[in-house]
Amino acid sequence: TLDSSRVAESAAATLFGPSGTTITTKEFSTKDLPFATHGCVLTVKIPKDGVTGHYLLRLERLDGPYMRCWLTQAPEKRVVLVNGEEFELGAFWGTRFWFHVPQECTGSRIGAKPWNRATRFGFAVYDGQGRFVDAKGWYYNSQIDKLPTHWLDIKVPADARGTWWSIPYTCAKGIHFIWPKELPPYLADSPISGFLPDPEYLRLVAGKE
Hints:
Elements: E1 11-16, E2 22-28, E3 56-60, E4 81-82, E5 86-89, E6 96-101, E7 107-114, E8 120-126, E9 132-139, E10 150-155, E11 163-168, E12 175-178, E13 186-188, H1 199-206
Antiparallel strand pairs: 1-2, 1-3, 4-13, 5-12, 6-11, 6-13, 7-10, 7-12, 8-9
C-alpha cells in the first residue's frame, strides 16, 4: 500500500523470482491505483506454479527515496520491507513494525523525526521478550521549531539477542527513521512473518536492470 498523498505519474514495479529472473514489470501512476483505508493499493501476483523461495518486489520512481509504504498482512507468507539508511514509515496509530536484533548486537542507536510538522511525535521500542525498552516523544510548535533528529539508545540484554524487536507506531502522520548499520535493514508486520533474506539473493537482484 502506497502513500496516496504523493502522486507518482510514472512509477514502476518489478517482481523478481527465486533465481533472480524478472517475472513481471508493471508501469503505473499512483493516481490510477484503487484506494483503500491506508492509501492506494498496488497488486502484483505471484504465479500459482511459482517456485518456493525468495521473491523481491522493487518499486521505482515513487517520488524520491522517501515515498511512504505500508506493510500488508500476508497470511502463511514471510514478508519484509527492505529499507535503506533513511526511510519513512506511515501507518495507523498503534501499528507495530518488527526488526531483527542480531545475536552479536549488544547495543544500538535509532534516530527519528516526524516527516512533517505534526504537533505530536514519538516512538517507543520493545525488546524480543516483549519488554519495554525506552521511548521518545515531543511536541512541536509548527511555526517556530525546526525538525531535528532525535536519538534513542538501546542496550540489548543477552536473552533478547537474535530476536525480533518492535516499534509501536505513535505518530500522527509519518516517521522519518535513520537506521543503524548494526541492525539488519528489514521490517516485518509481525515476528512470525519476519525473516532475514539471503544476502546473495539480494546482491543478485541488485544487479538486475
